[in-house]
Design a protein that fits this description.
With 165 residues, this protein is an alpha+beta fold. It has six helices and six strands. The chain has a two-stranded antiparallel ribbon. A two-stranded antiparallel ribbon has the order 3-4. A hairpin with a 6-residue loop joins strand 1 and strand 2 (13-15).
Length: 165
């Protein structure tokens, strides 16, 4: 029985536990170690971020029930992470909401989006035109900075300010 294997990427001998399992190889593990495979995956993601996110969004829409089930399982296993991310988003929104903001119009925008989705079966999102936490500019959480757009377009936009010509 083999105790170790040489990674094809970094050319170092590592134990079999440092490789992902693979039924196609004689050794039963992949040719690259977990660290190298992770680095390659991150590089590919960085090069194709928009494409990957769009593919993921389409999969989520197509397999909505499976995604929700997996999401609930993750939330149950990681409650502190869920609360952390929720708190960060809430704080970002609160810090970006000025005292003069018209909360009724903001609520109306979200309610209208919900009504469109429920009544016509659309998949729409409320989007901040100028992102709350952008790289170069940060917008406010006010009704004039909100728009209702298709979910696919919003997921493609991410946290970016798109300048329209």
């Amino acid at each position: 029985m083999i105790d170790g294997k040489i990674c094809k990427k970094c050319n170092t001998e590592k134990s079999l536990s440092d490789f992902h399992k693979c039924s196609r190889n004689k050794s039963g593990v992949q040719s690259k170690c977990k660290n190298c495979a992770s680095k390659l995956a991150k590089e590919r993601y960085m090069e194709n971020t928009e494409k990957v996110l769009l593919i993921n969004a389409r999969w989520r829409n197509k397999h909505r029930d499976r995604h929700r089930k997996a999401q609930k399982q993750w939330e149950q296993k990681n409650p502190s992470s869920k609360y952390f991310h929720t708190a960060v988003r809430r704080a970002r929104k609160k810090n970006a909401t000025p005292a003069w903001a018209d909360m009724d119009r903001i609520k109306y925008t979200y309610a209208h989006c919900h009504w469109l989705n429920k009544t016509f079966g659309h998949n729409m999102h409320v989007d901040h035109i100028v992102p709350l936490n952008g790289k170069n500019v940060c917008g406010l959480h006010v009704h004039t900075n909100l728009q209702i757009i298709p979910a696919e377009e919003n997921l493609r936009k991410h946290n970016k300010l798109l300048v329209q010509e």
